[in-house]
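U., I forgot to send this yesterday:
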Amino acid sequence: MESVDFRIKIDPAGYVMEKRGAPANAWTMAARRTLEGVACAANNMPVFTPEGAVTGLATITVTNSWAVTRSPWRSPAGLKPPRIY
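Result:
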C-alpha cells in the first residue's frame, strides 16, 4: 500500500482531491467531483495523512435550495473525518 498524503480543495461547484508525490513533493490532482444543485465552501484545505490524521482543521459548508449544512473536519484522538462520496 502506498503511503501518500491527500488534501481536499473545496470550490463552489464541488471539490478537487490532490495527492502529494514526486517530483519535488508537489501536489497533483487525483480526482475532481462536481456536485450539481449545491454550493460548497471551506475555510481551509485539510491534508489527510496515511496514518488517518487530518491537519489543517476546516469547516465545510454545503448549501442547496432547502438547507445549509456545516461539517467540522478535525482529528482529535484519532477520529476520522466524514466520508466523501
